[in-house]
Amino acid sequence: MSEIAKARVFSGIPNVLDAKAIELPFLGNGEILVKNSMCSICKSDLHTLSGTRPGPTPSILGHEIVGEIVALPANPVLDFWGNQLKTGDLITWTIMASCGECSFCKRGLPQKCVSIKKYGHEKMEGHFRLTGGFASHTHLYPGTFTYKLPGEIDKRLLAGLNCSWATVVAAIRNADEIKGKNVLITGAGMLGLLAVMICREKGAAKIVVCDKDEQRLDLTKDFGADLTLKDCFSNSNEKEGSGMLQQNALIDVFLEMTGSNEIVQKIFQIAGIGASIVLAGSVFPVEDVVINPEHIVRRLLQIKGVHNYTPNDLGDAIMILQKTYRKYPFEKLFDQKTYGLENIDEAVAHATLSSKHRVVIGL
């Protein structure tokens, strides 16, 4: 294949993305070539670009991608639901490719596969060079779960399915039953806001959201939050929450999306009897926090960590979006401007400053 892809490549110099032309690959069995339609900039992309998160270089960042198939191998390729894929299909795919044979894959944890490949996180080398969304095309590895998508949904929403949406679905799955439960969500960024909406759809009794950003808190009300608190662990806000945040009160589920050690520590302290605690935000190296084992035992606490998700979670996320995309004001989640590869530097700068909106790149 002699055509050329356009890419913006990160070589390790903070906040620098170099324009590169890359030859499109010939496909092997199980591989797919996608023409990217939309890629949103995730906070993890910004951490890598700024140098606060180490990663291999050179690489093409960006993993929240949706696009159309432009080339398939000779052998038929089926998506997650068993649909035979064809050129022109609009698809998303898991953030990772997995082998399906290692002990983690066989235990239902493909996101921890011993030979995992993650889109937007891999070094450009050998046969696979186009593996991120900051490019015109993505070359999918064998072992990637793909999902054919409906064309009527805003592509800005579709792009985030394989990151924030699926991660939140995994977090809520690990909290067990949500219906009729009181839920506290710490963090009102993209993860927290989607958690509000999905908990509302699953029949939560009360949803409390804590965040320092008042604009983000206001937005959660449009997605189903019952109570928003700027400092949910202060004495005054515990009182405002009608005692819901006090030890042994009726917070049944804690969904922690910030990664703040201070917040994690406080949750461990106040969680009441039978509470379920799901940690999804602590994805960077942090100091240890203190937890009393007796409290875990006597309070019957359940504590789970969630990192990425399984293919089933992404499938469930797609189903939820199909049911809700007309119900909630999702357009409020995105910056009004759509950027291109040619002005991706401007997009990154804006995303770095934006606490409320997701910045997207049209390709």
From TrEMBL:
Q: Per its Swiss-Prot or TrEMBL entry, what cofactor is needed? A: Zn(2+)
Metal-binding listed as a keyword: yes
| Alphabetic keyword roster | Metal-binding, NAD, Oxidoreductase, Zinc
Under which main EC class is this enzyme filed? oxidoreductase
EC number(s) on file: 1.1.1.1
InterPro entries (alphabetical): ADH-like_C, ADH-like_N, ADH_phosphonate_catab-assoc, GroES-like_sf, NAD(P)-bd_dom_sf
Q: Name one GO molecular function term.
A: alcohol dehydrogenase (NAD+) activity
Q: What sequence ranges are listed for the domain Alcohol dehydrogenase-like N-terminal?
A: 28-150
Domain (Alcohol dehydrogenase-like C-terminal): residue spans on this chain = 191-320
Ranges in a coiled coil: none
CDD domains in the cross-refs: MDR_TM0436_like
Q: Which GO terms describe its cellular component?
A: cytoplasm
The record's section on Pfam families has: ADH_N, ADH_zinc_N
Protein family (similarity comment): Belongs to the zinc-containing alcohol dehydrogenase family.
Question: What is the protein's name according to its record?
Answer: alcohol dehydrogenase
The source organism is: Maribellus luteus
